[in-house]
């Protein structure tokens, strides 16, 4: 089977959204958990493809794109770009009261209006951040490591001294993988961790 890591290309967006949904329940398939299946992608994948495509890389096999890593070299600058160029259209499309409070959609709509912010001292030490997701068919074959190493090289070239990420406490498999990749815990929240690594 042919498998490769390559840079993001226009036309990959739909695959990014699909992978984001199919890994969106602490690494498990979140299909059916959201009334609007695009919401996860709008928050965690789309802005990177649109605003930082040079730091987006995908793993491809014979069946298409099956994994990705998405990054931003300077988190605060990326947040400003999102405020200017990504969130306004989504806020118009998804008003604050557009999702019922008893659905999973509601927290994502809230994030569109009130995006998460990592603590300033974390961003100062580790200004870059990333998201990585792989479909099960590529897991356990070294593609997560290869994706991260590809992004690390690109972040170093962009001048980023360190990188952080967020992970759900329930996603124990991912946490173990990140530790093996050299990440350490820098913040603990009730349901998630912030892990970071110097580059």
TrEMBL record:
InterPro entries according to UniProt: Acyl_CoA_acyltransferase, Glycosyl_Hydrolase_84, GNAT_dom
Domain N-acetyltransferase: from-to ranges: 3-199
Protein name per the record: GNAT family N-acetyltransferase
Organism name: Actinophytocola gossypii
